[in-house]
Write a structure and sequence with these properties.
Structural class: mainly beta
Radius of gyration: 15 Å
Shape: globular
Strand content: over 45%
Largest sheet: 10 strands, parallel
Length: 171
């Protein structure tokens, strides 16, 4: 668990494998991040992965104000490359501002693994431009994860802006 009272800036500056992560071949390996605000850039990630038969760990991010992943690629991800199911992702924030190819994704790559769920608790504004939220499964029998978006007040959807290639995809 990573907790900071201010802004969490995770910047890989182009260096591969800059991440807050949990990886396993067995079950679990969850990642929890709490901050007032958060920016993930330069190829950095918050991730969970499994390469074996155990279920991958969940990724839980709670930010008091904004989450801003400004760069291309999956900045928040839960993945399975083995027979275990991918973990789920929960993101809670006042605003989620995604652009320039930023991505939140769950993926199951093996033939029987299931993809993880993606749940957003975005209170005020979801900005998704040229970016994507993806739950996918590449196997023959696995199920993709589910997508849910709820505001803090229980309103089924906060104000949203999707354009210029912004998408939610399930494969």
């Amino acid at each position: 668990m990573v907790t900071t009272p201010g802004m969490l800036v995770l910047d890989g500056a182009g260096v591969a494998n800059t991440q807050i992560a949990a990886s396993a071949t067995g079950p679990r390996g969850s990642v929890m991040v709490k901050a007032d605000a958060q920016s993930i850039g330069g190829g950095a990630q918050i991730a969970s992965s499994t390469a074996g038969p155990g279920k991958g760990g969940d990724v839980d991010i709670a930010v008091a104000s904004d989450i801003v992943p400004p760069d291309p690629g999956p900045q928040i991800t839960a993945r399975s490359t083995g027979s275990g199911d991918a973990g789920s992702i929960t993101v809670s924030a006042t605003r989620l501002l995604m652009k320039n190819g930023a991505a939140i994704s769950t993926e199951a790559a093996a033939s029987t693994a299931n993809g993880g769920n993606i749940t957003l608790h975005v209170r005020d504004f979801l900005y998704l431009v040229g970016s994507e939220i993806t739950a996918s499964v590449k196997g023959e029998t696995g199920n993709r994860g589910k997508y849910r978006n709820r505001s803090a007040a229980g309103d089924p959807r906060p104000q949203q802006h999707h354009s210029a290639g912004g998408q939610r995809t399930w494969r």
